[in-house]
Specification:
heterodimer; A: 418 residues; mainly alpha; Cytochrome Bc1 Complex, Chain C; Helix Hairpins; 2 domains; two-stranded antiparallel sheet; 16 helices; 2% strand; B: 269 residues; two-stranded antiparallel ribbon; 7 helices; 40% helix; globular
């Protein structure tokens, strides 16, 4: 998509197509000859893995929707019928439910990789922003999907999350009622959540198209964070990265399959195998693991409205990231100070996730987790809004290599190649 | 003066009584960690023990079914692969032993002259009938408590089969001194809150096993927990078997892809 096309139609038919709808040209330029930095490591294979995850979720989801009944009285039993009576229904549902967790696992690795190597910095700001949008859409889709089995956690999770909107002054309770389509989470809510759960993945697919389009204009960042300077710095996408992506994707699927076949309910909550009951509140209402850090932030703020603002702010912050980082060096490899704060940030996120999974009054070694979560939340915002702008200005980066080729091949080989 | 004395007495009595009161309130009635039921189906290659499944079914049928439903299980499940291993004829006979609420007869009636619900013998396509016609009837017969349906009990409880085994063998224990068992409830420290509404369901020789296995409480609990694990997860054996094939395939494919990756990249470093 970027730069002059290298496609030459080989047959009369290809020429005919190329003059009318240059789809083969597009595929050739984006997936075959696309010049890609030669030094991309394992963490760069997660883009392809995520595309795979989206495809798996859409395919299994379409089949599940053929058997699922979006009705508060029938949904729970219809899911159980999928597990018991539909041919390979258990397999399709377990792939779909574990697939959501795998999708988020991959997206978190993908995002932390972007953060570490500075992939959000100019000229790739829009790739990052579109990516955050995809992440938001993923969270919404996953939340809607978790409601559909109509188990206890589905129902009470939906109740807790939709009730967050009632924290908005004046119009909050009206918004909640409007979202529910009723005066509480019920059949109307389930139906619209099903509709949205079916719709959003296709919107995600569209936005992923934009994400990849935006990527193909400046091209990939790389672990060194330096620009591609000569053809020696790159290799054609095919076969070099198709084969590398395929290998790591296969390893990823090994992990995926291990969960599906040997621990299919590892990420689940036993309460969700009990049908939704508006009269019985579970002792602990816990969201899925991938939302736990935000849940911990929400709970750590005593005021509900402030909690919602902080939680929302944590995600909104990500949109501003490209301009919060003042450093002229992209990769943390050459940023000795930033590297340490980056890892502290990763630890803070894990701590938040852990705190979100525990009950509000839990303590570890006598320390109330509520305060641990508060400190981690503070660090989350401190990291983006204070540390990042300051470190970029005061840090002395290490010396950057002259080129990607020189870094990979060594001075003499790079010189010989030129 | 008299008032002062009374006041002192009251303070003194409170001082004596308070620790006692406080002690009663300090019970942490969190459920005990589950006991290991030593189930044959654990681990990546574990399969259900057919004998335990059939014995467990007997325990369910003769003991649990009085109060607990099994709404998601059909009689044809009993002769399916990966299940208790009954023959089709046996499953049919089991089904025929149950009375299923009948459809309206040709006069449009669903009750007989005396107002009793018309029934018909079960067939393979039927699911296990509920012990009570509705939730209210279930509660009315169990001092207000609702005996849960057992179709998914293994997946719906933290600890799974070990939890079921622990509950069933966790009765008949002496409560710690000072712990008051709620009226109409039973002491079971493996249950959250320690007060359980279910009366001790199992006694030794509650059932007579036809294969000669001695029916101790532990044996009965182990067998019925195995049966309920299957009821929750009837595709477990197929799942593990398929998974093994899938993983072998993926590992081989990974090897091939790794070789291709190395070859393609051989002269690039």
């Amino acid at each position: 998509m970027s730069g002059p096309s290298t496609y030459t139609p080989k047959s009369g038919f290809e020429k005919w197509i190329d003059q009318r709808l240059p789809l083969p040209r597009l595929m050739h330029d984006t997936m075959q000859t696309f010049p890609t930095p030669r030094n991309l490591n394992i963490w760069y294979t997660f883009g392809g893995i995520l595309t795979f995850c989206l495809g798996v979720q859409i395919l299994t989801g379409i089949v599940l929707a053929m058997h699922y009944v979006a009705n508060a009285g029938l949904a729970f039993d219809s899911v159980e019928a999928i597990m018991r009576d539909v041919n390979y229904g258990w397999l399709i549902r377990y792939i779909h439910s574990n697939g959501a967790s795998m999708f988020f696992l991959a997206v978190y690795i993908h995002m932390f990789r972007g953060l570490y190597y500075g992939s959000y910095k100019a000229p790739r700001e829009l790739i990052w922003i579109i990516g955050v949008l995809i992440y938001l859409l993923m969270m919404a889709t996953a939340f809607f999907g978790y409601v559909l089995p109509w188990g206890q956690m589905s129902f009470w999770g939906a109740t807790v999350i939709t009730n967050l909107f009632s924290a908005i002054p004046v119009v909050g309770s009206h918004i909640a009622t409007w979202l529910w389509g009723d005066f509480a989470v019920g059949d109307a809510t389930l139906n619209r959540f099903f509709s949205l759960h079916y719709l959003l993945p296709f919107i995600i697919a569209g936005v992923v198209g934009l994400h990849i389009w935006a990527l193909h204009v400046p091209g990939n960042n790389n672990p060194l964070g330096i620009d591609v300077k000569s053809p020696q710095d790159t290799v054609p996408f095919h076969p070099y990265y198709t084969v590398k992506d395929a290998f790591y994707l296969c390893l990823f699927v090994v992990v995926f399959a291990t969960f599906v076949f040997y621990a299919p309910n590892f990420f689940g909550n036993p309460d969700n195998y009990q049908q939704a009951n508006p009269l019985v509140t579970p002792p602990d209402i816990v969201p899925e693991w991938y939302l736990l850090p935000f849940y911990a932030m929400l709970r750590s703020i005593p005021n509900k409205l402030m909690g919602v603002i902080v939680m929302g702010g944590a995600i909104v912050t990500l949109f501003f990231l490209p301009w919060l980082d003042t450093s002229r060096v992209r990769s943390c490899r050459f940023r000795p100070l930033m590297k340490q704060f980056f890892w502290a940030f990763a630890v803070a996120c894990v701590i938040l996730g852990y705190c979100g999974a525990q009950s509000v009054d839990a303590t570890v070694a006598g320390i109330p987790l509520l305060w641990v979560a508060r400190l981690a939340t503070l660090y989350y915002f401190l990291f983006f809004w204070i540390l990042m702008p300051i470190i970029g200005l005061i840090e002395t980066p290490k010396k950057l290599p002259a080129s990607i080729a020189q870094s990979v091949l060594g001075d003499t080989a790079a010189a010989a190649a030129e | 003066m008299r008032f002062a004395l009374r006041f002192a007495l009251a303070v003194g009595l409170t001082a004596v009584a308070l620790p006692a009161l406080a002690q009663e309130a300090t019970f942490d009635t969190k459920r005990l960690p589950v006991k290991d039921g030593h189930f044959e189906f654990e681990g990546p290659f574990g399969t259900y023990d057919r004998g335990a499944l059939q014995r467990g079914f007997q325990v369910y049928k003769e003991v649990c079914a009085a109060c607990h439903g099994l709404n998601h299980i059909a009689f044809h499940n009993l002769d399916e692969e990966g299940g208790p291993g009954f023959t089709e004829a046996q499953a049919k006979a089991i089904a025929a032993g149950y009375k299923i609420p009948a459809d309206p007869n040709d006069k449009g009636e669903i009750t007989d002259d005396k107002g009793n619900r018309l029934t018909r013998p079960g067939i393979l396509a039927d699911k296990f009938p509920s012990p009570y016609p509705n939730e209210e009837a279930a509660r009315a017969n169990n001092s207000g408590s609702l005996p849960p349906d057992l179709s998914m009990i293994e997946k719906a409880r933290e600890g799974g089969s070990d939890y079921i085994y622990s509950i069933l063998t966790g009765f008949h224990m002496t409560p710690p001194k000072g712990f008051k068992v709620t009226e109409g409830k039973y002491y079971n420290p493996y249950f959250e809150g320690w007060n359980i509404s279910m009366p001790p369901p199992l006694v030794a020789d509650a059932v007579t096993y036809s294969d000669g296995t001695k029916a101790t409480i532990e044996q009965e609990a182990h067998d019925v927990a195995t049966f309920l694990a299957w009821a929750s997860d009837p595709k477990m054996e197929e799942r593990k078997r398929t998974g093994f094939g899938v993983l072998v395939f993926l590992v081989v494919l990974s090897g091939v892809l790794f070789a291709a990756y190395r070859k393609v990249w051989a002269d690039m470093h």
